[in-house]
Design goal:
The chain contains seven helices and four strands. With 179 residues, it is of the alpha+beta class. It has a single domain, classed as Arc Repressor Mutant, subunit A, CATH 1.10.10.10. The radius of gyration is 18 Å and the shape is globular. The protein starts with a helix and ends with a strand.
């Protein structure tokens, strides 16, 4: 049997997830990009910047915690929309990498800033101590659900720096992008 508090917490977590989903639907409905595509595009841009080379699809699948088939389908749809371009590694033709097109760069910029604004709005009501407590609690819940994610702290800190830089820049292209 669950307690009233557990039920209340479960309900609140659902409300937060649905509110975030509605916010993202609003953003992505104006950009012809799905949440999944945005996530893949953002991760690809970040990995490209940190490695200074186009990202391998296998590395992208690993960082996204998705199967190679799933990530390949998403990238295929993104390629048909002109957001990314697949390229074969010249040293090993079995390896496929992706580069981000100008259109992909622009969609990433358009869709990332409103998400950053939501995060700021959402957490501005919490103190630093409360945010740290929430991280501890959500880490415990994630561990209980056995979510095998490769989003370690240093990766998330690097991603945050990348997003903040991207939101401050208006014109410069992302590294590894192609027209």
């Amino acid at each position: 049997m669950i307690s009233v508090e557990e039920h209340f917490l479960w309900h609140n977590l659902h409300r937060i997830v649905h509110a975030i989903a509605r916010h993202e639907e609003t953003i992505f409905s104006t950009t012809d990009i799905t949440h999944q595509q945005h996530s893949v595009l953002l991760t690809a841009a970040f990995l490209t910047e940190t490695s200074k080379t186009p990202v391998k699809i296998t590395d992208l699948a690993s960082r996204q915690n998705r199967s190679l088939v799933s990530i390949s389908l998403i990238i295929g749809r993104m390629e048909s929309k002109g957001l990314v371009k697949k390229v074969r590694d010249p040293d090993d033709r079995r390896i496929i990498k992706i580069t981000i097109t100008k259109k992909g760069e622009e969609l990433l910029r358009i869709s990332s800033n409103p998400t950053t604004e939501l995060v700021q709005k959402l957490f501005s009501s919490l103190s630093d101590k409360e945010i740290k407590q929430a991280i501890v609690i959500t880490d415990k819940l994630i561990a209980r659900l056995d979510l095998n994610s490769k989003f370690d702290k240093s990766y998330l800190e690097g991603m945050l720096d990348f997003i903040n830089k991207m939101n401050q820049k208006a014109d410069p292209p992302l590294p590894g992008s192609k027209a």
